[in-house]
């Protein structure tokens, strides 16, 4: 199976590989997939108190299409608000990378990773606010 | 160095230039049909086929009249299993093979099982028609079978006891190193067993099976012994006499011959019989009809002759290359796991899992090197290698496996380049792997509740 030029580009020059401090209250971490299925994506977003994604980093265990899908979403989410980011669909990712049907699950995983990272951030924020309230009273 | 580098010699091998030379006349002026008995064109073709038959026979320790030419090993495997099942059906209906066999064996087995099952279903239907005195719709069979207690029906039991269509199969597990446990095989043989089929060497992990011991066991129990010898012939010793083999599948394109030509060895003393699966002009003593592929057969013969005369030196050279590659990968990378036995292994096979790196991604990273992977991503089924799974290799490690197949035309310089490329790319991909990071931080990956998808 031949890969599309965009997949090859993201695979060979992956954007935003790396790790953010997961204990940072403004960092949301999404870890999706399973080693047994052959792909695991970890997407980390640094989100301002105003809800804007300032930075995004990923690490992915998976095939070229999985790596390209995660690389692409790190580019796409930067500068977006969390609400905008969570509207990104796997269809848009698959279309941008021209993924063949057998690789669609890679784009699904990338969409899930965004949602998981945002959910983790929101959970942290809620806990923080809960703690702040508890201190105030 | 010229790129890409071919290191996938279990898939197929390059045609040896000497083989091509031998074939060319039979694609040009000597185009005759080997079955034409009345003119020089036919005689020349026939003489060439008979010479090749002797060359192929010599490679495996057989007599020329024990070689049946086929279109390749898949056909040979089909012919062996289906041919024996049909010819020996009055003797028994049970066959034994391994879970790590090639799909040509496993799927022939599945078809024979399905044929038997369909016959049993037909008998059930007939019995129900008899009992109800009415038409029986297929969807009503289950309910009516329960109503009439067919599982205790003496008449149906007598009927099913005479079913001679298809076969029953036992698919034996292998040990962790990929080898069959002889005691388990001995236990699996029953008085209804007519055939044991065990490959010489596995196509993924290169594990070489103890054929001489299996042959001895089968002969002592009066069971026919077939071996899919495709991957091992010409690379490790294989002799149908000393190994007491009754049927063996071989093919030309794994020993630097052309594709589309193979053979089934069928023992003459004591005589083994098979029913043909392809009917027609009665070629190959009635066991395989169809005009002979003369040029292909000549190429197969030449390839067999080269393999026979050069095997000892070539296997030693290829083993040294394999060990060079293995030691470089294992010394420069951590968490590289060898799949299958090291001791009982084809000289050119190296199958390793690079933990925390997905196989297809690694293949994409070393795109100038042709290898293959047990990763699901490289198969249509989306399941990782069934061979690795049968060894007990965890799914994630099966996804991380790469098979290097070294052969006649690989060089030391190629091995060094491939080793360097693989080491670099594995390191790069591990830097991108969340699993590698977690493992280094001491996270037990098994403790995480992964969401299967």
**Cα radius of gyration of chain B in angstroms:** 25 Å
Strand-residue proportion of chain A: 15-25%
Query: Helix and strand succession of chain A?
Result: HEEEHHHH
What is the count of DSSP helices of chain A, taking H or I runs of 4+ residues? Answer: 5
Number of strand segments of chain B: 13
The share of residues in helices of chain B is 40-55%
Low-confidence stretches of chain B: none
Beta-strand portion of chain B reads: 5-15%
Largest beta-sheet details of chain A: 3 strands, antiparallel
Structural class of chain B: alpha/beta
Nutshell version of this structure?
The complex is a heterodimer of chains A (137) and B (453). Chain A has 137 residues and is of the alpha+beta class.
Walk me through what this model shows:
The complex is a heterodimer of chains A (137) and B (453). Chain A has a 3-stranded antiparallel sheet. Chain A is α+β, with helices and mostly antiparallel strands and 137 residues long. In chain A, α1 (5-12) packs across α2 (64-77), α2 crosses α5 and α4 packs across α5. Chain A has helices spanning 5-12, 64-77, 82-85, 90-97, 104-136, and strands at 27-34, 39-47, 53-61. Chain A is elongated, with a radius of gyration of 16 Å. With 453 residues, chain B is α/β, with parallel strands linked by helices. Chain B has 14 helices and 13 strands. The model of chain B has no long low-confidence stretch (mean pLDDT 95). Chain A binds chain B through residues 3, 11, 14, 17, 19, 31-42, 59-64, 66-67, 102, 105, 108-109, and chain B through 356-358, 360-361, 364-365, 375-377, 380, 382, 384, 394-396, 399, 431-437, 445, 448, 450-453.
């Amino acid at each position: 199976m031949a890969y599309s030029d965009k997949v090859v580009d993201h695979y060979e020059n992956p954007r935003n590989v790396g790790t953010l401090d997961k204990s940072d209250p403004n960092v949301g971490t999404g870890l999706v997939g399973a080693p047994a299925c052959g792909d695991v994506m970890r997407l980390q977003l640094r989100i301002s108190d105003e809800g804007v994604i300032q930075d995004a980093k990923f690490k992915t265990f998976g095939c070229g299409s999985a790596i390209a899908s995660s690389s692409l979403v790190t580019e796409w989410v930067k500068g977006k608000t969390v609400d905008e980011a969570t509207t990104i669909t796997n269809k848009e990712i698959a279309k941008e990378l021209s993924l063949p049907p057998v690789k669609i699950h890679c784009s699904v995983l990338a969409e899930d990773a965004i949602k998981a990272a945002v959910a983790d951030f929101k959970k942290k924020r809620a806990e923080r606010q809960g703690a702040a309230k508890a201190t105030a009273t | 160095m010229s790129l890409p580098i071919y290191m996938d010699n279990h898939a197929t091998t390059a045609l040896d230039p000497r083989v091509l030379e031998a074939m060319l006349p039979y694609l040009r002026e000597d185009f005759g049909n080997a079955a034409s008995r009345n003119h020089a064109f036919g005689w020349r073709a026939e003489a060439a086929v008979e010479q090749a038959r002797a060359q192929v026979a010599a490679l495996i320790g057989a007599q020329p009249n024990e070689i049946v030419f086929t279109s390749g090993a898949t056909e040979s495997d089909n012919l062996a299993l289906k041919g024996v099942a049909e010819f020996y059906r009055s003797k028994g209906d049970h066959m034994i093979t391994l879970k790590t066999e090639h799909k040509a064996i496993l799927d022939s087995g599945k078809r024979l099982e399905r044929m038997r099952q369909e016959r049993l279903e037909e008998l059930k239907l007939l019995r129900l028609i008899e009992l109800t005195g009415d038409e029986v719709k297929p969807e009503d069979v289950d309910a009516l079978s329960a109503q009439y207690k067919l599982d205790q029906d003496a008449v149906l039991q007598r009927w099913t006891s005479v079913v001679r269509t298809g076969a029953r199969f036992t698919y034996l597990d292998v040990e962790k190193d990929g080898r069959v446990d002889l005691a388990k095989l001995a236990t699996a043989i029953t008085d209804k067993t007519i055939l044991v089929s065990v490959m010489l060497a596995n196509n993924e992990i290169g594990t070489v099976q103890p054929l001489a011991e299996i042959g001895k066991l089968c002969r002592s129990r009066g069971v026919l012994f077939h071996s899919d010898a495709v991957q091992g012939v010409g690379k490790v010793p294989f002799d149908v006499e000393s190994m007491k083999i009754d049927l063996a599948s071989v093919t030309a394109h794994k020993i630097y011959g052309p594709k589309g030509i193979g053979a089934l060895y069928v023992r003459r003393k004591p005589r083994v019989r098979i029913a043909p699966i392809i009917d027609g002009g009665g070629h190959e003593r009635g066991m395989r009809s169809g005009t002979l592929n003369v040029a292909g057969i000549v190429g197969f013969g030449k390839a067999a002759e080269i393999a026979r005369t050069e095997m000892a030196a070539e296997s030693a050279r290829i083993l040294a290359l394999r060990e060079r590659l293995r030691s470089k990968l294992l010394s420069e990378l951590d968490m590289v796991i060898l799949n299958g036995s090291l001791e009982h292994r084809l000289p050119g096979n190296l199958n390793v899992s690079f933990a925390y790196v997905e196989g297809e991604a690694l293949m994409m990273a070393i795109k100038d090197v042709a290898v293959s992977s047990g990763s699901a991503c490289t198969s249509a089924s989306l399941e990782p290698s069934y061979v690795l799974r049968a060894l007990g290799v965890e799914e994630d490690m099966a996804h991380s496996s790469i098979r290097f197949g070294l052969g006649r035309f690989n060089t030391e310089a190629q091995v060094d380049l491939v080793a360097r490329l693989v080491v670099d790319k594995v390191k790069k991909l591990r830097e991108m792997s969340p699993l590698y990071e977690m493992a280094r931080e001491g996270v037990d990956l098994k403790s995480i509740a992964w969401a299967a998808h």
